[in-house]
Task: inverse folding
């Protein structure tokens, strides 16, 4: 398996005991789908054995096959997406919990998050390729008026006038709000299409080293050295965000984590700024979390043409109720939180886990370790 990011790996120490340590993998994929990642992990670490349990997930509800209590107490490492045992006392020997998700906000109130010091790591880095493709796809679907053309096809109508209002992407500006692994891959694809990219992060990135991506990187993707943005904005105050939003942004990609400070980060004032700064209109793509946008304010902005449109893979709440007015808002495309899906997802996430097991054994810096105080 190929791993990038975070510097050279130290040689592994031999296992202290002949008894193999347990990796408890509680994941929303059947074992056969996880098998390549499991086999690669057991091949790389001959002191480990992986026990897989299927966590069924549908429309926001999780059910897990019964896991024997003795396995919980034996687990040295846990790989999970949604599931956690009820209490830290259930997993006394666990040294690391590797989430296969980009964020951990869904467990922020769980006792393991609030009352333990077990390192929690996210799978940031595995989502970049597929989510960047979703963002660009949605932007092109909108800018090329494809939904109207598809309606014509279903009606068996040939009307070229419907397809004449195309706005190509060359020279347009992408603003990436939260320049993490996903935003970096969006930047890579956008630059290849002839677009300008500007970035926004909470912390300043004024030195070459600070601009580097120190997390997991799918080989051949992203912006490892942070060189793609033509300008970099930062800060945690509204004034800092507003300065970024004034930069005549054509496509605004939301990639920040959901925290108390980012809840309703974009609302009426922000939509007004986007409208004032760009006469062409800003298109918004949200692939982060629904509550980052004030949803009623977004609907108003769509209805009053303050923004050009929105592509939403996340909503508030999820699932989005059938009677929610967002469904009927103009120029909106909604998908049911699936932009991160990929046939390579599980294998890549197992690679992140492998990297962190190496580093945990050698006392190195973990990849994507969650700062509980910051929330990500």
Result:
């Amino acid at each position: 398996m190929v791993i990038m990011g975070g510097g050279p790996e130290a040689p592994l120490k031999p296992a202290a005991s002949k008894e193999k340590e347990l990796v408890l993998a509680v994941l929303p994929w059947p074992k056969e789908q996880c098998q390549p990642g499991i086999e690669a992990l057991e091949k790389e670490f001959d002191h480990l054995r992986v026990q897989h349990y299927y966590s069924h997930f549908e429309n926001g509800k999780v059910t897990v096959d019964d896991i024997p209590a003795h396995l919980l107490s034996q687990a040295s490492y846990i790989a999970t997406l949604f599931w956690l045992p009820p209490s830290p006392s259930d997993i006394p020997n666990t040294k690391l919990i590797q989430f296969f998700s980009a964020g951990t906000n869904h467990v922020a109130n769980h006792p393991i998050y609030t009352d333990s010091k077990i390192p929690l790591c996210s799978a940031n880095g595995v989502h970049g390729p597929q989510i960047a493709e979703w963002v660009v796809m949605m932007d092109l679907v909108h800018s090329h008026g494809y939904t109207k053309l598809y309606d014509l096809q279903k009606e068996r109508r040939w009307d070229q006038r419907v397809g004449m209002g195309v706005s190509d992407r060359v020279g347009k500006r992408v603003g990436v709000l939260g320049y993490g692994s996903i935003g970096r891959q969006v930047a890579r694809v956008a630059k290849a299409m002839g677009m300008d990219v500007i970035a926004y992060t909470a912390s300043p990135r004024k030195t070459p080293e600070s601009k580097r991506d120190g997390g997991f990187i799918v080989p051949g993707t992203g912006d490892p050295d942070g060189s793609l943005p033509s300008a970099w904005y930062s800060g945690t105050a509204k004034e800092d965000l507003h300065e970024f939003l004034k930069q005549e942004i054509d496509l605004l990609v939301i990639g920040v984590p959901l925290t108390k400070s980012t809840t309703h980060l974009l609302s009426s004032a922000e939509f007004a700024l986007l409208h004032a700064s760009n006469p062409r209109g800003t298109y918004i793509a949200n692939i982060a979390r629904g509550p980052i946008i004030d949803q009623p304010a977004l609907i108003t902005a769509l209805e009053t043409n303050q923004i050009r449109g929105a592509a939403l893979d996340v909503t508030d709440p999820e699932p989005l109720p059938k009677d929610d007015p967002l469904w009927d808002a103009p120029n909106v495309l909604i998908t049911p939180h699936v932009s991160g899906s990929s046939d390579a997802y599980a294998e890549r996430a197992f690679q992140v886990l492998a990297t962190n097991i190496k580093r945990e054994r050698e006392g190195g810096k973990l990849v994507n370790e969650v700062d509980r105080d910051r929330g990500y």
